[in-house]
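Bench log. Compound arrived from synthesis this morning; before running ITC I wanted a structural hypothesis for how 2-(butylsulfanyl)adenosine sits in the protein. Inputs:
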Amino acid sequence: MTNDIKKQIDNLRRQINEHNYKYYSLNAPTISDKEYDKLFLHLKELETKYPDMITPDSPTQRVSGQPILEFSTVAHSLPMLSIDNTYNEQELSAFDERIAKNLGTKDYQYTVELKIDGLAISLRYEDGILTQAATRGDGTIGDDVTVNVRTIKSVPLRLVGTDYPKVLEVRGEVYMPIKAFNDLNEKRVEAGEREFANPRNAAAGSLKLLDPETTAQRKLSFFAYSLGQTSQPIATNHFTAMNRFKDFGLPINENISKAADIDEVIKICRRWDKERHKLDYMTDGMVIKIDRFTQRDMLGTTGRAPRWCIAYKFAAEQAETVVESIDLQVGKTGVITPVANLTPVKLAGTTVKRASLHNFDEIERLDVAAGDTVIVEKAGEIIPQVISVKQKGLVREPFAKPVNCPVCSEPVKKDENGVYYKCHNSSCPAVIREKIIYFAGKAQMDIDSFGPALVDQLLAKKLIKNFADIYKLTFAQVSQLPRMGDKSAEKVLESIDKSKTQTLARFIAALGINNVGTQSAEILADNFANIDSLMGATQEQLCQIDQVGPVMAKSIYDYFHTEKNVDIINQMFANGVSPSHEKTIVSDILAGQTIVVTGTLENFSRDRIEQTIKDNGGKVSSSVSKKTSFVLAGTEPGSKVDKAQSLGVKIISESEFMKILGKE
Ligand code: IVH
């Protein structure tokens, strides 16, 4: 019996590892996410039932729930060197001449790969199992970040196959994909936290968190690019070693080429300088390496960096311009951001007129003032940023931190974490403007042609002062606006009308509740049958939803218990707004409840009971936690009942459940 279970568990783990490998290393999944989730859930269920069989390398064991107190240090078995840089093609040719001279031959080849902009990490596998992950540190000693690296899905906890050496150290780059970076920053702004300046800082910051559960949410990824210590050689050249990595299930970047000479290297570098913008991760150059290991040994290292390797750094796209003035911008949450107005300048294909200065600490750090000549750069090629002051202006206008809101003049308060200044006046015209623009925005109610210009006109004419007023606008009012023809006015009203049946998730997002972005709104919409049940939810009910913490729960509760907000929502309903919900909800009796089912039920198959719970507004979960509302236990229930008892989670019988549904 136990042997059978062990076989089943081993088999599931093997399948899951194989699919991870196909997904992350080969970029070629052969099953759908749903099928993958099914395998994963099955394994989880078996492990919950037979906890003795859980092993640390099981794919279910990526996140250890325990925060750590501090990182211990690790001495690297081989130093983690850095790479010398070149900044132009002449320097690359000079590098090639040194190689030819030192090797005394022209018989060598290069590999050319992308320089991933993240942070270097060393992974140690013993008998195919990930035993340690360390940061580069000073190259000799780094930090032990194993618990955090284990949460990165593309890092295998166990190598694939059996062909790997007993000890294998792999080095590579941990990075944050651009989309994950943007999403993270969006959330941080919503929560009033400091934004990360670029994906590299975000990756480094995420890996140094003491709580692995938070790291797990940061969507980090990994590419392997070099060898550390090994108990036996795996190849005689780099290109083959990289292919062996791939066979072991380690993700490598596919954009690697062999080059016969430096001209070919230069061609590849030129191509990537243009095409790198298409990638969904940041690169800051190319890395050029001698391919054959014996030749690398002949060339040796200089102590700091190997002689067989060079980086070709892409020119950071920078421009010089003058700060004409510094404005204060009030966002929809009241956060006040300093923005530099620049003399327009061309940068990376666009004309830059403004650059964010992030916050007031940043102004102090840069010591920038209106009148200064500054260097601007596309930070991570995403947002234009002032990098440094090149020359102080003759006439300087030093910048004072705000005491009053620049728009409504109410006193501003500094945020608790000490970075942001905030206007707390909910009637501040700037806050209202930003909230309305956000409400109508593409990812929210998506009201076409309802952009900042129209919002400004409507506000100026006092035709709108909140979301509800949008739905009261008439043709006569809109068509009388300056530069608005009848046709355009009709179009505006049509778009407004169309938005009335926008999805529940978008409607929730559009409200602009503090700490609730588009992703959180989707989670809320998934957990509530309709807006009324969300509005009526208690903080406890909200906290029971996975991914809703006490801070968000309080924001939501406070929002829906502020008379003015409820009044505006009701006015919207009265004017025809009716968010659509794709789910077929029979009732909302189970709204806000997370239910775990175990054992055999009399009246329902497993699929039927899950559907019934969802149809009544509830959510099904496979494992018992403190967030579980109750466990529905049939006959011969599993260990979930014990877990529920130990956590003090309510357990109910099938007949009690039928009573709740009103079907005795
Ligand atoms: S090879 C001794 N390959 O760049 C050579 N490094 O500026 C070992 N990096 O510390 C590194 N992409 O963090 C190598 N394809 C790549 C890389 C890469 C990014 C990083 C690495 C290194 C830094 C040096």
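What the model suggests: The chain has a mean pLDDT of 90. The chain has 25 helices and 22 strands.
ITC booked for Thursday regardless.
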